[in-house]
Amino acid sequence: xxxxxxxxxxxxxxxxxxxxxxxxxxxxxxxxxxxxxxxxxxxxxxxxxxxxxxxxxxxxxxxxxxxxxxxxxxxxxxxxxxxxxxxxxxxxxxxxxxxxxxxxxxxxxxxxxxxxx
Length: 117
Fold this sequence. Notes:
Blueprint: H1 13-20, H2 49-60, H3 64-75, H4 84-115
């Protein structure tokens, strides 16, 4: 807001404060009252301070894809590549482990639980 000769071209500081603090609404009244000579409207393209902070935070964020790629690169090249075949083999192995665990629990833990009721 540069210096202008017309005060109505400037934005009211109370209005800006109310908008920034989300207090501006239907029943908001300027503390200067009806005699306020400044504008109570935002100019086109005006960006609020809180929105500037959000935009700066978004600039600093990295995308999920970039994060995954960065973490994958940090693991090194000795890791197993994930393909459909390696995934299915891993999944079969996990299902088998779960079945063995359930079998153990059924045969060894269930009688113990029934005895110690």
